[in-house]
Amino acid sequence: MSATPHLAAPPAHYENFPVASWLCPPHLRPPIAAIYHFARTADDIADEGDASPDQRLAELRAYRDELAAAAQGEALAGSRWPHVFGPLTHSIAQYGLPEDLLADLLSAFMQDIEKTHDHGTYADRAELLDYCRRSANPVGRLLLHLYGVHDAEALAQSDAICSALQLINFWQDPSVDLPRGRFYFPLTDCARRGLTREHFKVFEPLSAAPPPQEAINLVSVVSFWARELMEEGAPLVHRLPGRAGWELRLVVQGGLRILDKITDLGFDTFSQRPTIGKADAPILLWKALRMRRQWRPMKAAPPR
Question: pTM of the entire structure?
């Protein structure tokens, strides 16, 4: 599981949020790094190596037990991850990081394992957004907590941005996810185009056959959905103070840049994965500078 990469993200295999970047206030770098290492290690347990699904789930349950102990300011005897839970325990105690948000991330990792093992699907957009609520939204809420922002409007805007980032990652990555047995397209959206899970078997693993036009149209529609969510949350950049607001501008523009690249590919992300590189930095910085308080309305949506 990962979310859309952007300029502030460190190593590529867990990219849900910026970590101790140069825009982050120095006093918040330790707790942000602690959250990052907690999530990254859980991601490794869920994805890396050759362990069976049952072994991965058992590991994550043990990891959850260590989180519960850390939330109580304790350390389990014989801790297997002291490099993770030492700093995290300190950060929870110092900043009051909510245990339930950290636990939600583990719940999402477990769901990914279970759905992949069982060839599971998401019935509709609401079910997929529930996954985003646990896989991505906690990251934004944890960062807002550290910045002392707690009001309902800000939390809702943060959720919209984080869910958008997770969705953008899905529509960016079918060439990666489908061969691994992960299927994130809502079945209701598929059904409107006469598609089922079986139509995507040709991409597991990827073949030389071009994707059907209906699948291209599907990426177009769900990409617009992700853009809607991103623009719904974007006003939050004007509410966060100083460096945090500028960090978030780059996060938002990074997600929108991936969507632009998906569009430039004709929405065929089955054949090619769009990415952000150093050449995109001037564009992201320019667009971040030009973000205004009044967000311009989007163009008409593609056919649903």
Answer: 0.88
